[in-house]
Design goal:
Keywords: Signal. This protein is mainly β. It is built from one helix and 44 strands.
Amino acid sequence: MKPTWKKSLTAAVLSVSLVLTASPAALLAEESGAAVQSVRGQYALTPLVRADVKSVSSVRIQDGTKIGAVVRLYNEGNRVTRVPEYELRVKTADGIEYTLRASAANAKAIQPKEKVDLSYMLTLDYIDATALAELSWVEVDEYVYPKLETPIMSVPVNGIVWNGSDSAISDVGAVKQWGEPFMLPVQSDSLQYTPVTLINEKTPQGPATVITLIAENKGTRTETVPDFRIDGKSDSRSYPGVRAEANVELKPGEKKYIHYGILTENDVVLNSLNVLTPETFVQLGASNTPTVESYTVGRLSVVLPPKSTIDINTLPIYKLRDRIAFDPLNKLVDKETEVSLVDLSMNESESAGYNTIIAKFMVKNTGERPVPLPAFQTELTNAEGFRYSGTRQTTSVEQLAPKLAYLVNYSYAVPSSEKGEDLLMKLQDNQTIAPYNIPIAGFKTAVAENKSEDPDMLSFYPYNVKLLSSAVSIQGSATGQFGYKMKLDLDITTVDDVIADVNSANMKIDLVDNSGRMIATQTVPFIGVNKLISGTQYLLFQNLRSDQFEWPLTVKLYESIQTPTGEANRLLKTMKQ
């Protein structure tokens, strides 16, 4: 796969030079518990200037080979010193030597105790350039004839050359296992990264793998996570990753998540990750206009686990109404927002062929200030691994008042064969790194059995309805039309102090004849106009589906909830009249 060399114009070489000059940081870092990427060691270039090879690359392009090298120089003195005016050359394994061109943005001097990165590049028409073996600094005196060349120092590079995104990292010290912390000393000696979750999901753009790292500042001053890329690698090719967060600042001791989304292809299995850092080279055009060429260099490889990293066996068994434990680093649900699952039921749908699971979550603000109502996403996974995404109830509420709770429903369309016995519930953040979902909580659960010690006590969470008595009678009219009148005596109580939407739960009443046909129906809310109340009330059924009198009748009481796919009904009680 040919590499992509991005080109962009800048206003001045000075601005590019500022970008290329990093803040002071040692290349070698000793971090207990973290696998630190080794560097080539430091070399004495002059009595005051020491050198390191930061990166070397040799990448095939469409018309040849592009060789890049970046060296890092340190001023060990107490005064500003000039960058030695040496040529940088590269030698192949066949003994062919090339002189690299210096970037127009390379620094001319080094502040005391500071460092600078010098970039070099050369494009060859020769496609089959052999492996690079050595970098060397050469002092050239062009003011004598013949010109005088004095070798200063040579550094072996045969083990660190990057050959492009599809190449493999074979250095044992640069291959890390999943979950093993690592650092990138070429960027920072204080920031540590630990891969923690890997999730495969489908997106409108195609299959994607979402990687989550914990970035931790081990140092003593605030740092910004530098730019680096993570690519996914299969057996045949690599897939570029994109970081979701633009600017991540870490105070000393602080931890934050950073995420990468890697778009792949159908049936592709990633087996490793390549961690790459950016390099730049600036060249001047005919009119002294600077052009920046950006490229990346592989630093280390992370071996991927064979499947998603969420271990179902480690997730707790959930008890309804308990507070759900969220990832403490999540950005969607704060510590003062309490979320609990209060009901999980299986419902029949209007259309044949599938059922609907309804999950009711109570979201409570335990703090003293209004907070946003968190719009988390949910997903159910059954024992066979089939995943069902939840559809959130539409609500106009955006803020939670202090000490108040709000009820939010989620619906899941499932096959009619689904029993709902062994389910995994995942709560996800689908906003922080949209369009990807990242898990922020998870637990094992099951659909609640529709059983009650009292057959006349019906649950329409957040309401309990005690059916004291009921009766159905014929209702005639002067025009000869008839209907049915139902008398209901109810005792309605609220289970929790929670604000419920008008569509959170309704009572649906069906009148069914001896043949099992529904001849009349009515849905009555618990909120708003014509709501159900405690005490005696009468309901009229006039829009009948039969033109003749039917008797006896069967009365069926359902909990009815509107979902985007239609009405979902849960049968609560059947009564013969």
